[in-house]
Automatic annotation (TrEMBL):
This is Iodothyronine deiodinase. One of its GO terms (biological process) is thyroid hormone catabolic process. The gene is dio1. It catalyses: 3,3'-diiodo-L-thyronine sulfate + iodide + A + H(+) = 3,3',5'-triiodo-L-thyronine sulfate + AH2; 3,3'-diiodothyronamine + iodide + A + H(+) = 3,3',5'-triiodothyronamine + AH2; 3-iodo-L-thyronine + iodide + A + H(+) = 3,3'-diiodo-L-thyronine + AH2; 3'-iodothyronamine + iodide + A + H(+) = 3',5'-diiodothyronamine + AH2. It comes from the Eukaryota. The lineage of its organism: Eukaryota, Metazoa, Chordata, Craniata, Vertebrata. Keywords: Oxidoreductase, Selenocysteine, Thyroid hormones biosynthesis. Responsible for the deiodination of T4 (3,5,3',5'-tetraiodothyronine). GO terms for molecular function: thyroxine 5'-deiodinase activity.
Length: 119
């Protein structure tokens, strides 16, 4: 959520060259886990319904692209090393850009530079 506005600007600026998708994975800073102060009140997901409900918080922030939810076994997060967050660009089913692991490696400006070369 911290850099959602930057992500939304990417969607606005590059929707002509890329399709965007957010995969909501396990909550990194759950209220009943390792939480920040002033964070969203989201507990660790115990069921798919919990995860869907938590993802709704993101959907309400209007990310300007579809939001899907990882399975409870975290297959997508594990496959892509996406805990707590990560940016990827895929082209023809192949990873062509793999951003650093979040939160410090989550860099929408790097993705912007990459996508500008694709225009």
């Amino acid at each position: 959520m911290y850099k959602l506005d930057e992500f939304k600007q990417l969607v606005r600026d590059f929707s002509d060259v890329a399709d965007f998708l957010v995969v909501y994975v396990a909550e990194a800073h759950s209220t009943d886990g390792w939480a920040f102060t002033n964070n969203f009140n989201i507990n660790q997901h115990q069921s798919l319904e919990d995860r869907l409900s938590a993802a709704q918080v993101l959907v309400e922030k209007e990310p300007l692209c579809p939001v899907v939810v990882d399975e409870m076994n975290d297959v997508t997060a594990v496959k892509y090393g996406a805990l707590p967050e990560r940016l990827y660009v895929l082209q023809a089913g192949k990873v062509v850009y793999k951003g650093g692991m979040g939160p410090w490696g989550y860099n929408p400006l790097e993705v912007r530079s990459f996508l500008e070369k694709m225009k």
